[in-house]
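Action item from last meeting closed. Structure (159 res):
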């Protein structure tokens, strides 16, 4: 996953020691990977209408564009967190159906957030319904990209 996000990592297989951007110019983010959408994963919900997902982190030299737009209340799995210092600057998220996460069943927060309309802008679609596969990774037409933390309600205590 680190390669697809254009990250440089000390250990790409484990997703540790990752950075994105231009370290020499001082325009970079430290990135923590959490590439699972199961009970051990990190989740959030969109907390504002028309929230844009970017296809790249906005750093010097990037040509970040809107990949998709999400509706208020969309359930999300957080796959990576880009930090500027100690604070989260962006999350790499994927919009998934809460029913595809077994830990979500019968949880009130998973009823509050769910599948909402997605406007795919630059992200191509394959015509396959989005789900979380047996490897706990999203499969199919799942909107994904980088989003600012103030547009989310991050589930700090998990599901």
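Sequence:
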């Amino acid at each position: 996953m680190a390669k697809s996000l254009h990250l440089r990592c000390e250990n790409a297989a484990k997703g540790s020691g990752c950075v994105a951007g231009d370290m020499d110019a001082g325009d970079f983010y430290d990135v923590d990977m959490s590439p699972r959408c199961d009970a051990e994963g990190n989740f959030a919900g969109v907390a504002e209408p028309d929230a844009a997902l970017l296809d790249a982190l906005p750093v010097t030299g990037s040509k970040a564009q809107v990949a998709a737009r999400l509706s208020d209340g969309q359930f999300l799995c957080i796959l990576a967190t880009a930090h500027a210092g100690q604070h989260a600057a962006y999350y790499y998220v994927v919009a998934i159906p809460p029913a595809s996460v077994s830990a979500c069943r019968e949880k009130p927060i998973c009823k509050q957030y769910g599948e909402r309309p997605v406007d795919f802008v630059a992200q191509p679609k394959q015509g396959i319904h989005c789900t979380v596969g047996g490897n706990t990774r999203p499969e199919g037409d799942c909107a994904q990209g980088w989003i600012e933390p103030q547009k989310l309600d991050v589930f700090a205590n998990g599901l």
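Note appended to the action item: The chain has a mean pLDDT of 89.
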